[in-house]
Amino acid sequence: MAASWILSLREGVVISEGEAGEVVIAGPSSRVVLRGLGPATLTALQRLAPPGMPEAKLAESVLEGDGPDALARWYYALQHLAQRGNLLVSAHAGKDRLATLVPTAPSFVFAGGTTVPERPCVLSRFAYLHRGDGEMVLESPRSFARVLLHDDRASALVHALARPTSADELGGRVLGLPGAAAGQLLGLFAAAGMVREVDQGGTDEDTDPALRSWEFHDLLFHSRSREGRHDHPVGGTYRLAGTLDPPPAVKPVAAAETIELYRPDLAKLAREDPPFAEVQERRRSIREYADEPMTDRQLGELLYRVARVKDLGEWEVTTPAGPVRMQSTSRPYPAGGGLYELEFYAVVSACRGLTPGLYHYDPLGHRLGRLAGPNADTETLLASAGSAAGVERERVQVLLILAARFPRLAWKYESLAYALTLKHVGVVYQTLYLAATAMGLAPCAVGGGDSDCFARAAGLDYYAETAVGEFLLGSR
């Protein structure tokens, strides 16, 4: 079977002629106008309609009909189509379509021809496979395209590239895949940025200091939660409107036992607090505590300063599913869309006025709900936080845990919901630091935590509400 690259338009892309002889290429989210194209080039563009044609035949028809100078315009047109995600490139073995390259970003460069890497290649350590719309999808945060795998042999080729291999070797290693087809498929992976050439020093991912600094999950999270390397919607798309009701602005109180907290006099704080510049200058992580632990009054004041609901309202938002009423709140720290997905929990080891255990903070009623007494999970949470901060377990007083009601953000925001949550955690950390410093407490943010252990301790669904930040507090 002969292998070939097939070029075709993405579904929904229409090519038409304008009144002044220009060519208009209109896609779902873009419109390109090209001028000065010859009749053979126009015909070649129209032949891109699905299922498309072999690239070599299209280029040959342009060359024969419009001459050598037209080839530059032809590839210029293809580049414009690719940059807007409207050009698909497929590798075939005979009549079997093996895989399709889909450009996902304006930075994608369409290189004409089916160039096969000369040196041995290996799959990028950042490349990954996942299921999407009934097919396997190969993606990488280093790439400006994704590859849809239509044939089991294409998936087998990905597996074969787990170790360095050449195009000549690949055909014999994948059962039922001719050598020519293996080369074409390898060329497609290379064009998509999924494989790296290997020399004596390894790949660029082995030798480039900047690339070596990135772990797979960090680079994937970075690229996927920002624009530039994918074609998924980003921002407030209200993607779950019409499917799920918007989660409430304030989590309902579930604890049977609640404890009212001290409410400070804000006017008095405004008069007596140290100046902001002094507070900011004194702010630092403190890991040593006084023998006498902090009090419930201090914890109440801190939570009032940082996390209480100042105002609760409701408004109507316009969504793809129609108008929807949703709630919002105002609190002492800023949060995207006024959604405030973060919940505050306190694991108390030593705090005058409170018995040890796990508590949830109700920001609307400004009270604590007791969820559990000391147990193996709360002990693990306290010991782990102390260890991470370099504090002896017996000295730990109060551990604040920030948990995200992720559906609250995901209902509205697409692609960046979790990234937004982490930004909110940083905002809360700084707010806690400043408030604790002004109050003369000892604050210390913790770099990590066990979300599974917290879910067990609080009796929560890991996916509905999960721990995303930890913060130690004590008497100074």
Dominant shape: elongated
Per CATH, the class of the largest domain reads Alpha Beta
Q: Tell me the CATH architecture of the largest domain.
A: 3-Layer(aba) Sandwich
Q: Helicity level, as a percent range?
A: 25-40%
Q: What can you see in these coordinates?
A:
- The chain has 476 residues and is of the alpha+beta class.
- The chain has 2 domains: 222 residues, no CATH class; 241 residues, NADH Oxidase (3-Layer(aba) Sandwich).
- It is built from 16 helices and 23 strands.
- Helix 1 packs antiparallel against helix 2, helix 11 crosses helix 15 and helix 12 packs across helix 15.
- The longest helix has 23 residues.
- It is elongated and about 90 Å long.
- The termini are far apart.
- 38% of the residues are buried.
Concise overview:
The chain is of the alpha+beta class and 476 residues long.
Secondary-structure map:
Blueprint lengths: L2 E7 L4 E4 L5 E4 L4 E4 L4 H8 L6 E2 H12 L2 H15 L3 E7 L2 E8 L17 E3 L4 E5 L2 E5 L5 E5 L2 H9 L6 H7 L5 H14 L2 E3 L6 H4 L1 H5 L2 H9 L10 E2 L20 E4 L5 H7 L3 H7 L13 H11 L4 E9 L2 E9 L11 E7 L8 E6 L4 E6 L3 H14 L8 E7 L1 H5 L2 E2 L2 H23 L1 E6 L4 H8 L7 E10 L1
Antiparallel strand pairs: 1-5, 1-6, 2-3, 3-4, 6-7, 7-11, 8-12, 9-10, 10-11, 13-21, 14-19, 15-16, 17-18, 17-20, 18-19, 20-23, 22-23
